């Protein structure tokens, strides 16, 4: 059941703890033994929350730090919160965290992109202050999602990982203190349907304590359109206004608890978009109508703040997507901040929601000259411990996001090794878990070029074929005449073998902004534009293709590597969101579709 986000209501109140916290790196891991949480952090500097810490300080030791990073702040608990249940919530701590309130350890969490919270009522005094300390750890292992490995060198500890974006760390999203009544609603879930002009909203409420649940559904003007009593039920909405791509119409479900005398005990409001999602043959249907995905893989990435959530940057990115004619994006390669999905809900933007399972493919490293890598799936590499964390990541993703109408599909992994029985044994339980938790949405994964239509061991588990392809860049580099028929032949092979909708979930080429060429030379803005135009000619000829997501929306930071000069340059916008020539070409295409 979905974890409820903090909100202000007649029975609840929240206090945002964002701002400047004290901060100290701990490369030796001394703080846990020495009990740094028991007092004011010594030798600390200030650090903004939310933000990645890596690029804030002009010091390579900070940027490339591996290990623990300590944050601390002092919070005054409002006196009016006496008698209330008080909860401390972290929207994300990458990649894991331990939290103390004063001297008491209150929470631990594994996974860098989903929220966690803890009831701290017994540890605080309304009207007083409390010290909150959290140690965030960025170490990746074979068991973590995503995976990585540690190495000890003469210069200290380093970390190698297998995904192509920088391993930013810290408190990337908001931190909250909030209240509920002792008897309160713990979760609200909704599933919607359409039958002609009539909508349905199936709801389920969970609660603590003894009180009577009620629900009221109101339209966007605040007019009540349906009501019910009980913890579960189905509301009928005549003359429904569906949520649709480009039309983010939202109803509001007010769930409430009442005592025996009818007095309000607790209330929570949940936005609801009434819509349906279905796969039929090679079509992807929203509200029974074929939908074609136009958009991007993105990243939570920006100069200075790294992956730290920023409302100004978020709105600007959405405005640029509207300018270019995009209608969708994939949360590559991890769940994005909940504020992003809220915005997509309100504006009718379609989202493919992805776990942080990236870099689970040791075969691909051979193409980069690594000959020392073991098989991907073993108990010493990607094994049962990884799978347990991966299953939890799927659960937390769906638990957090299942009420968002913008989310139309779950993606369990990006470019995993999809060959052989070992891959199937690893992934089959993940697909099954996603479908058990949410039978209303399709489930998929993104396939890389090494696993072909006739050899991929996972594609029959997926409802949709999603392929990341780089013909003209990594294959047939610089030769679009060879790349075009090769791309078309493979897409037709996928369609013929599987008979499912195909989304080309990544395609593109690096381009250095300002690099121009008379002939189509790789890395030039002209070549990037010509390559994208070639892909679009192919998409228009293959009926099973129902979506095009360019890699990437904007340039982004990566590990230091000689093939990555100041990061990945496949964006159609620069990292500071200036359009390359390709952005104008894409705009001409997408605004006509």
TrEMBL record:
Pfam families, per database record: Glyco_hydro_2, Glyco_hydro_2_C, Glyco_hydro_2_N
Catalytic activity, EC: 3.2.1.31
Domain Glycoside hydrolase family 2 immunoglobulin-like beta-sandwich: 183-275
Ranges for domain Glycoside hydrolase family 2 catalytic: 277-593
Keyword Hydrolase recorded: yes
Lineage top rank: taxon: Bacteria
Enzyme class: hydrolase
PROSITE patterns: GLYCOSYL_HYDROL_F2_1 (PS00719)
Alphabetical UniProt keywords: Glycosidase, Hydrolase
All residue ranges annotated as the Glycosyl hydrolases family 2 sugar binding domain in the record: 15-181
NCBIfam families: PRK10150.1
PANTHER family in UniProt: BETA-GLUCURONIDASE
Family affiliation: Belongs to the glycosyl hydrolase 2 family.
Record-given protein name: Beta-glucuronidase
């Amino acid at each position: 059941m979905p974890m409820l986000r903090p909100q202000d209501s007649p029975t609840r109140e929240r206090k945002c703890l964002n701002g400047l916290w004290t901060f100290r790196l701990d490369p030796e891991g001394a703080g846990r033994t020495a009990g740094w949480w028991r007092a004011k952090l010594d030798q600390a500097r200030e650090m903004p929350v939310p933000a990645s810490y890596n690029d804030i300080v002009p010091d390579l030791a900070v940027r490339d730090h591996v290990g623990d990073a300590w944050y601390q702040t002092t919070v005054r608990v409002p006196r009016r919160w006496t008698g209330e249940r008080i909860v401390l919530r972290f929207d994300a701590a990458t990649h894991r965290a331990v939290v103390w309130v004063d001297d008491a350890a209150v929470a631990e969490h594994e996974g860098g992109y989903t929220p966690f919270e803890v009831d701290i009522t017994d540890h605080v005094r309304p009207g007083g202050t409390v010290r909150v300390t959290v140690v965030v750890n960025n170490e990746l292992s074979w068991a973590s999602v995503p995976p990585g490995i540690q190495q000890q060198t003469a210069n200290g500890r380093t970390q190698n990982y297998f995904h192509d974006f920088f391993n930013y760390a810290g408190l990337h999203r908001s931190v909250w203190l909030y209240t509920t009544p002792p008897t309160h609603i713990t979760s609200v879930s909704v599933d919607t349907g359409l039958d002609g002009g009539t909508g349905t909203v199936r709801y389920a409420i969970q609660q603590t304590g003894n009180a009577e649940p009620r629900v009221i559904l109101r339209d966007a003007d605040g007019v009540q359109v349906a009501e019910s009593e009980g913890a579960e039920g189905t509301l009928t909405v005549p003359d429904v206004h569906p949520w649709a791509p480009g039309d983010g119409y939202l109803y509001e479900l007010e769930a409430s608890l009442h005592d025996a005398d009818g007095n309000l005990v607790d209330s929570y409001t949940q936005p609801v978009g009434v819509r349906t999602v279905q796969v039929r043959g090679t079509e992807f249907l929203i509200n029974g109508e074929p939908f074609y995905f136009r958009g991007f893989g993105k990243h939570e990435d920006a100069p200075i703040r790294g992956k730290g959530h920023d409302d100004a940057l978020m709105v600007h990115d959405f405005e640029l997507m509207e300018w270019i004619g995009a209608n969708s994006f994939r949360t590559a390669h991890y769940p994005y901040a909940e504020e992003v999905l809220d915005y997509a809900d309100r504006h009718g933007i379609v989202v493919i929601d992805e776990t942080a399972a990236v870099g689970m493919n040791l075969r691909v490293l051979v193409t980069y000259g690594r000959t020392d890598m073991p098989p991907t799936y073993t108990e010493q590499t990607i094994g049962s411990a990884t799978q347990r964390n991966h299953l939890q990541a799927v659960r937390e993703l769906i638990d957090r996001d299942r009420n968002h109408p913008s989310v139309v599909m779950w993606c369990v992994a990006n470019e995993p090794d999809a060959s052989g029985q070992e891959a199937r044994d690893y992934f089959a339980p993940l697909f099954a878990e996603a479908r058990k938790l949410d039978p209303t949405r399709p489930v998929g994964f993104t396939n890389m070029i090494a696993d072909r239509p006739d050899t991929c061991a996972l594609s029959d588990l997926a409802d949709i074929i999603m392929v990341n392809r780089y013909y003209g860049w990594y294959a047939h580099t610089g030769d679009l005449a060879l790349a075009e028929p090769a791309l078309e032949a493979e897409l037709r092979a996928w369609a013929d073998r599987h008979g499912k909708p195909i989304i080309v979930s990544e395609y593109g080429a690096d381009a250095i902004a300002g690099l121009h060429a008379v002939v189509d030379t790789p890395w030039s803005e002209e070549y990037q534009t010509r390559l994208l135009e070639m892909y679009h000619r192919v998409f228009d000829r293959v009926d099973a293709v129902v979506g095009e997501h360019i890699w990437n929306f904007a340039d982004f930071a990566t590990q230091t590597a000689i093939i990555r000069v100041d990061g990945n340059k496949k964006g159609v916008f620069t990292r500071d969101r200036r359009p390359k020539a390709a952005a104008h070409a894409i705009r001409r295409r997408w605004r006509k579709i």
